[in-house]
C-alpha cells in the first residue's frame, strides 16, 4: 500500500471507524500513551511534533505536559481524522493540526524540540526517507520517542480475534506483516538500523509489556473486536450475515475469559518504545 493508498484508506475507511470508536480505543491504549509520554521527557516550553496524531488525543496530552509556553502540532495523513480533531479540540490551548504525509511534508522554517508518535509511524512506504524528513523538522539534538507494536505472537489483541474469526467464518487473504501496517516495525534491530540510516543518533529500543485496558465486560469488548482489527477484516471480507456475526461475537466473548480480572478486561501486549536524537545539539 503506497502512501497515497494510506491517505485514502485512513480518510475514507479507517478514519471514520476510529472516530466512532475513539473513546473506547483511547481507553484501551491509555497505558501505551502514558508510557510513551513518560519516556518522551517533555519539558515546559517544548514544541512537540506528534506524527500520525489521528484524532488528536496524544497531541493534547503532549501539549498539557509542555505548559502554557509550549505547543504541540499533530501531523496526519487523514483528512477525516484531522477534521474531527479540529472540531473536537478547537478550544484546546497551544494545539494545532496539519494535514500532511510525514515522509514528504515540507516543514519550512518550523522546528520542533521533540517528536512523539503513538502507533503513527508504521505505515511509511520508505521508513528511512520518512525519518530523514521528520528530522528536518526538528531542532539539533531534538528527542524522538515513538511506540509501535512488538512481535505478533506477543499481541493477542490481534492474534486471538484472527484465530477465532478463522475458526468461525474462514481465513481472509494473508497480509504481509513487513508491508506498511501494524507490525511493520516489530523487529527492533531492523528499526534501529533504519533510524541510523536516517541520520539519527543515541538510538534505543525497548520491548515493554503493557496491558491493554478496553472498557466494559467481555460482550462489550467482543463488540469492539468485531468493529476494528482482524475480526472486523474477516467480517468485511466474507460479507457475513447477522447469524454468523453473532456466532463470532459469542466466540470472541468466550475467548476473552482468560483476560478477565477484578479491574476489567486486561489484554497483554508487547510494545516497542524507540527513542533517538537528531544530529547536533548538546
Quick gist of this model?
With 282 residues, the chain is of the alpha/beta class. The chain has eleven helices and nine strands. It holds the Pfam family Methyltransf_25.
CATH H-tier superfamily of the largest domain:
Vaccinia Virus protein VP39
**CATH architecture field of the largest domain:** 3-Layer(aba) Sandwich
Strand order of the largest sheet: 3-2-1-4-5-9-6
What is the percentage of strand-forming residues?
Answer: 15-25%
- H/E order of the elements? HHHEHEHEEHEHHEHHHEEE
Question: How many separate helices?
Answer: 11
User: CATH class of the largest domain, please?
Assistant: Alpha Beta
**Number of E-state strands:** 9
Protein name: Methyltransferase domain-containing protein
InterPro entries: Methyltransf_25 (IPR041698), SAM-dependent_MTases_sf (IPR029063)
GO molecular function: methyltransferase activity
Give the SSE layout:
Layout: H1 3-20, H2 22-28, H3 30-40, E1 47-51, H4 57-66, E2 71-76, H5 79-88, E3 95-99, E4 112-118, H6 127-136, E5 138-149, H7 156-168, H8 188-197, E6 201-212, H9 218-225, H10 230-238, H11 242-255, E7 260-261, E8 264-265, E9 267-277
Parallel strand pairs: 1-2, 1-4, 2-3, 4-5
Antiparallel strand pairs: 5-9, 6-9, 7-8
Amino acid at each position: 500500500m503506497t502512501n497515497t493508498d494510506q491517505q485514502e484508506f485512513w480518510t475514507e475507511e479507517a478514519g471514520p471507524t476510529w472516530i466512532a470508536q475513539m473513546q473506547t480505543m483511547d481507553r484501551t491504549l491509555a497505558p501505551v500513551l502514558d508510557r510513551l509520554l513518560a519516556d518522551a521527557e517533555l519539558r515546559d516550553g517544548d514544541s512537540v511534533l506528534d506524527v500520525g496524531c489521528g484524532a488528536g488525543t496524544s497531541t493534547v496530552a503532549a501539549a498539557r505536559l509542555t505548559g502554557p509556553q509550549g505547543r504541540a502540532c499533530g501531523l496526519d495523513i487523514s483528512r477525516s481524522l484531522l477534521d474531527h480533531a479540529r472540531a473536537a479540540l478547537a478550544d484546546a490551548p497551544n494545539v494545532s493540526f496539519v494535514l500532511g504525509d510525514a515522509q514528504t511534508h515540507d516543514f519550512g522554517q518550523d522546528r520542533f524540540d521533540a517528536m512523539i508518535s503513538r502507533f503513527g509511524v508504521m505505515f511509511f512506504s520508505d521508513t528511512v526517507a520518512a525519518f530523514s524528513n521528520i528530522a528536518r523538522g526538528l531542532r539539533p539534538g531534538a528527542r524522538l520517542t515513538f511506540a509501535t507494536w512488538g512481535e505478533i505472537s506477543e499481541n493477542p489483541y490481534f492474534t486471538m480475534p484472527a484465530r477465532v474469526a478463522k475458526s468461525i467464518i474462514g481465513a481472509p487473504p494473508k497480509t504481509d506483516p513487513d508491508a506498511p501496517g501494524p507490525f511493520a516495525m516489530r523487529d527492533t534491530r531492523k528499526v534501529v538500523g533504519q533510524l541510523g540510516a536516517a541520520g539519527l543518533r543515541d538510538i534505543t529500543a525497548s520491548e515493554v509489556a503493557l496491558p491493554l485496558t478496553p472498557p466494559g465486560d467481555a460482550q462489550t469488548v467482543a463488540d469492539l473486536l468485531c468493529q476494528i482489527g482482524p475480526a472486523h477484516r474477516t467480517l468485511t471480507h466474507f460479507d457475513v450475515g447477522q447469524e454468523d456475526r453473532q456466532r463470532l461475537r459469542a466466540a470472541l466473548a468466550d475467548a476473552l475469559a482468560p483476560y478477565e480480572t477484578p479491574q476489567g478486561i486486561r489484554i497483554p501486549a508487547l510494545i516497542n518504545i524507540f527513542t533517538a536524537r537528531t544530529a547536533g545539539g548538546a
